[in-house]
């Protein structure tokens, strides 16, 4: 089967499954997306006090402290969906006015802040709008962006593994056996950032010269990816600099010092657009182009340490980022530990990942790890699950997969099942705060059965839908429907036949 046909199937599979696991979390990045889609403005005054990360700056109104990249992307599908969303919102508000409803219906969430948020959103007439907008944004921007990231992983794995079949199964393991699954449940700038940076790496590496584009064009696009990573979050500076340094090293053997400098210059040119856009956003939103939004953020927990909560690296935070039972990188994705062991088991000229690329992958991980060990807000991940280290997932999965395929088949099956046993319950139940950390969603899955986040939310609204589902909403019909669609995708003649046994070796 042609690699493109496999890639299309991977994309459609991931898009469907990710959208099915939509979580109705209203994160801070949604508010600027709505303002951009409604008014083409960064100001979120109409949502004041709806989220703890929204704050007011004298003379500039209400904004979020985070970079706007994810909100800008999310604003596109929301704006396109407004002709459908707006009439529904108006109809619901008219029905409530006619019925004389004056108080919000009960919301039986176990979390007090969630109950308070829903009540306030209902009083402002925003509950339906926020819910529909969150779904549109997740299904039409977040889910497809992660699906594209998995497709990109497939193409990189084709080179690393020298096998289409192996690359296919490993890319699906990456999609559903790592926290990519969990973080794609709602709009998440960290995961988007990681896949954007991965695209920059692919452009610079260009394994086996698969891309026929000119060196200048590839470096220009890679710079665009690096700059966009910063537009999404200031941790993207790590990837911007890492890609720049790797690009110089990668270009030096063929172009010498002059060629490396010229290519590096094109990388810098490519990065300027997104960075200038970020500075424009900061100027329009806060009155100064160069200070981050966090500079104006009002006092919150841990903000008194360092500069607005960011200081020197701390050993305690290094350990928490890696091994905390609620959000540690190697706890929620133990398969990634293989990435650290890979250099010990594969050496010499026949290694699957060349030395410069391996140094970039592991070096970027260390740099990001140390960077966030200085952020005291790391301690707040107990109620969100893995967050700050999410961008590094694709960079560690590549060397991890290279070692995984060297292991005995039974060990590979065990690692894959362990990864899925952690990842899927986390995407379904999403609760790592209470009790046992990541064991909490796993235990709830084995004891309470399968679930989908949005169906769980619906069942907790007795005043609206819950009376129809007194025992909860079963996800099995939706699982069956998506299962049929996936069967069609992987067997339909439109997409090509199933992956044949003799196509495991990819051709040029």
Question: Which key phrases capture this entry?
Answer:
2 strands, 19 helices, globular, 508 residues, mainly alpha, two-stranded antiparallel sheet
Question: Brief overview, please?
Answer:
Helices cover 62% and strands 2% of the residues. With 508 residues, it is an all-alpha fold. A hairpin with a 3-residue loop joins strand 1 and strand 2.
Topology:
Blueprint: H1 3-20, H2 30-39, E1 54-57, E2 61-64, H3 69-99, H4 112-123, H5 127-161, H6 164-176, H7 180-183, H8 189-205, H9 215-232, H10 236-286, H11 315-323, H12 329-332, H13 337-345, H14 355-372, H15 393-404, H16 409-429, H17 439-448, H18 453-459, H19 476-491
Antiparallel strand pairs: 1-2
Helix pairs in contact: 1-5, 1-6, 1-19, 2-3, 3-5, 5-6, 5-8, 5-15, 8-9, 8-10, 9-10, 10-14, 13-15, 14-15, 16-17
How large is the count of helical segments?
A: 19
Radius of gyration, in angstroms, nearest whole number: 23 Å
Detail the poorly predicted runs: 495-508
Distance between the termini: 13 Å
Number of domains: 1
Helix percent band: 55-70%
**Broad shape:** globular
The helix-and-strand class reads mainly alpha
Q: Proportion of β residues?
A: under 5%
| Annotation, overall tally of beta strands | 2
List SSEs in N-to-C order: HHEEHHHHHHHHHHHHHHHHH
Strand order of the largest sheet: 1-2
pLDDT averaged over residues: 91
Largest sheet, in brief, is:
2 strands, antiparallel
């Amino acid at each position: 089967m042609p690699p493109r046909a496999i890639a299309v199937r991977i994309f459609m599979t991931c898009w469907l499954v990710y959208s099915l696991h939509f979580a109705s979390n209203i994160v801070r990045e949604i508010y600027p997306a709505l303002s951009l889609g409604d008014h083409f403005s960064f100001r979120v005054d109409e949502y004041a006090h709806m989220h703890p990360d929204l704050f007011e700056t004298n003379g500039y109104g209400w904004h979020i402290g985070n970079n706007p990249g994810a909100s800008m992307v999310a604003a596109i599908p929301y704006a396109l969906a407004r002709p459908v969303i707006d009439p529904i919102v108006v109809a619901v508000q008219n029905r409530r006015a006619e019925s004389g409803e004056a108080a919000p219906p009960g919301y039986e969430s176990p979390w007090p802040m969630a109950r308070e948020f829903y009540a306030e959103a209902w009083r402002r007439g925003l509950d339906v709008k926020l819910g529909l907008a969150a779904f549109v944004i997740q299904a039409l921007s977040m889910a497809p962006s992660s699906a594209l990231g998995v497709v990109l992983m497939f193409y990189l794995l084709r080179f690393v593994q020298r096998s289409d079949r192996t690359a296919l199964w490993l890319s699906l393991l990456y999609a559903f056996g790592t926290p990519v699954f969990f973080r794609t449940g709602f709009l998440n700038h960290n995961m988007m950032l990681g896949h954007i940076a991965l695209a920059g790496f692919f452009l610079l590496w260009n394994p086996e010269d698969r891309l026929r584009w000119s060196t200048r064009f590839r470096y220009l696009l890679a710079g665009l990816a690096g700059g966009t990573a910063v537009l999404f979050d200031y941790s993207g500076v790590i990837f911007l600099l890492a890609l720049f340094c790797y690009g110089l090293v990668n270009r030096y053997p063929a172009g010498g010092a002059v060629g490396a400098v010229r290519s590096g210059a094109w990388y810098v040119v490519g990065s300027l657009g997104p960075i200038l856009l970020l500075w424009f956003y900061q100027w329009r939103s806060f009155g100064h182009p160069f200070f981050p939004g966090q500079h104006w953020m009002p006092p919150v927990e841990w903000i008194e340490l360092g500069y607005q909560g960011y200081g020197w690296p701390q050993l305690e935070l290094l350990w928490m980022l890696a091994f905390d039972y609620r959000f540690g990188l190697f706890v929620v994705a133990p398969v990634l530990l293989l990435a650290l062991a890979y250099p010990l088991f594969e050496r010499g000229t026949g290694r699957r990942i060349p030395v410069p690329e391996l140094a970039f992958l592991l070096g970027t991980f260390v740099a990001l790890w140390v960077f966030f060990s200085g952020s005291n807000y790391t301690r707040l991940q107990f109620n969100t699950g893995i967050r700050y280290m999410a961008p590094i997932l694709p960079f560690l999965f590549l060397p991890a997969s290279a070692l995984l395929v060297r292991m005995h088949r039974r060990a590979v099956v065990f690692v894959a099942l362990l990864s899925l046993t952690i990842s899927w319950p986390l995407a379904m139940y999403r609760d790592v705060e209470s009790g046992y950390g990541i064991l909490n969603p796993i235990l709830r899955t084995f004891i309470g059965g399968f679930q989908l986040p949005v169906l769980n939310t619906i069942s907790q609204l007795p005043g609206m839908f819950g009376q129809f589902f007194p025992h909860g909403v079963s996800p099995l019909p939706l699982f069956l429907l998506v299962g049929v669609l996936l069967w069609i995708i992987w067997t339909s003649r439109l997409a090509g036949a199933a992956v044949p046994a003799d196509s495991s070796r990819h051709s040029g």
